[in-house]
Amino acid sequence: RRSPSPPPPRLPPSPPGLPVIGHLHLLRPPVHRTFHELAARLGPLVHIRLGSTHCVVASSADVARELIHGHDATISGRPITALARLFSYGSAGFAFTPYGPQWRFLRRLCVSEVLGPRTVEQLRPVRRASLAPLLRAVLAAAARGEAVNLTRELIRFSIASIIRMVASDVPGSVADEAQDLVKAVTGLLGAFNVEDYVPLCRGWDLQGLRREAAGVHRRFDALLEKMIRHKEEARDHGRPGNAEHQQEDKKQAPATRQRNMDLLDILLEKAGDEAADVKLTRENMKAFITDVVTAGSDSSAATVEWMLAELMNHPEAMRKVREEIDAVVGGDRIVGEADLPRLPYLQAAFKETLRLHPGAPIAHRVSTAEMAVRRCTVPPRTAVFINVWAIGRDPVFWEDPLAFRPERFMPGGAAAALEPRGQHFQFMPFGGGRRGCPAVGLAQQSVPAALAALVQCFDWAVADGETGFVDMDESDVGLVCARKHPLLLRPTARLNPLPAIVSL
Ligand code: HEM
């Protein structure tokens, strides 16, 4: 008598697919919207096949909770594409590094030191100084009566701010060179490369992306080398660095010493630490900087942009944000990160913006072992996409989900208790679990503070003037939830003269 064979694993529901390409043909950008439509038809956990890669898409808070609470270790890998491997020096950083000892070491270093609360606080003046060129550019446009392309100015500001946090004393020419290169790297990392999914296409470089990436990587690597060498020289000579100074420096308590350190100082110090669990190599440092610069620049810039666009379309909310800032700060200085605890409406508007337009709309993971989710089986090596964007708009939890209503996040509001870094799953713009965004603290300071300065210093009008509204279309390229059309607004200086703008 033969014993019955076990039933085949039951995969989550799936739309009809095609041979070889599976469901690739369904994947229209922006992908988070396509996934949302699939979920509306098939439910909150859907299985698809992109070429030879099995994928599941999670689109509700309950499924996200089950995955992150129940299987965090199993889904703590990140899928790595051919171009991500190149730019992360073969996974030497941590954003694209498999879950393991190296990732744990780098992640700990990142969360506790490089992007930890103390460093974020210490680098506040650096971020504030990066705001000055943005405000000056807007002021100049206001004087000429011209519109400002805020999409362009905000990405410039965001890249400059992160580059300055990495190396506060790099020459201006290096910071300028970084602008175009960072844009090129983030563009390539966000591009859909068919090679990653269809083995038949591997090695052919049908879209020419590898060739392009090789050139960009060479130039970006040279730039990173320049930044590191400049820092090494600065540490060797004088500032704060000749032998005498270093001796003096070492005598100080770590907290005092860290006061003058930027991210590269911290990395170089760790690289020289013989007792560290993992020896930081130059490759690790470069990949680390690449991770921080690419993960932080577009997402932050896009969030300031969406926030301003939403406020333009909701004059009542704009009025409340302004009144709050004016009441707290007055007109004789420019609002800053230190004022944020006294600006609850601004913070509520920030969270409401993240709910509707999460900078990174999908948290990408990869499973390392078989999992049972919602009574289905998810095979090992499956790409797991958590649709953060869809979860923020789920009508099961959010009343009138498409409306921009910062009041939800005000004390006593329906969502007041939902902290973006909390362990609930209805509002998770920074992902969650051990692989969640390590820069939540930084983004919570830098994004609302930049928006606040723009709104405090200028009145804004929609540039085309026809409808008086800003269009809210989403771009269909890249990994970030970005605007489709540039945000063009006409500024008028509101504080005239702008206080202490040159000495910011
Ligand atoms: C509003 C701005 C931002 C948003 C909405 C955002 C969102 C996210 C999300 C959703 C993830 C994936 C989390 C997951 O898989 O669970 C992530 C990862 C990450 N973010 Fe952010 N982020 C922002 C700003 C930043 C900034 C400013 C930096 C750095 C300066 C940064 C660095 C990173 C890194 C390095 C990772 C990968 C972490 C890992 O794999 O362990 N992010 N972010």
Number of helical regions: 17
Backbone CA Rg: 24 Å
CATH class: Mainly Alpha
What is the general shape?
Answer: globular
Unique bound compounds: protoporphyrin IX containing FE
Strand content: 5-15%
Largest sheet: 4 strands, mixed
Tell me the CATH topology: Cytochrome p450
Mean pLDDT: 90
Q: Please mark out the parts with pLDDT under 50 across 5 or more consecutive residues, or reply none.
A: 240-246, 251-259
Give a verbal description of the structure.
The structure is a single chain. The protein has 504 residues and is an alpha+beta fold. It has one domain: Cytochrome p450 (Orthogonal Bundle). 47% of the residues lie in helices and 8% in strands. It has 17 helices and nine strands. The strands form three sheets. Strands 1-2-7-4 form a four-stranded mixed β-sheet. Strands 3-9-8 form a three-stranded antiparallel β-sheet. Protoporphyrin IX containing FE binds at residues 78, 94-95, 107, 162, 291-292, 295-296, 299-300, 303, 358-360, 363, 365, 388, 429-432, 435-439, 442-443, 447. Residues 78, 94-95, 107, 162, 291-292, 295-296, 299-300, 303, 358-360, 363, 365, 388, 429-432, 435-439, 442-443, 447 line the site of protoporphyrin IX containing FE.
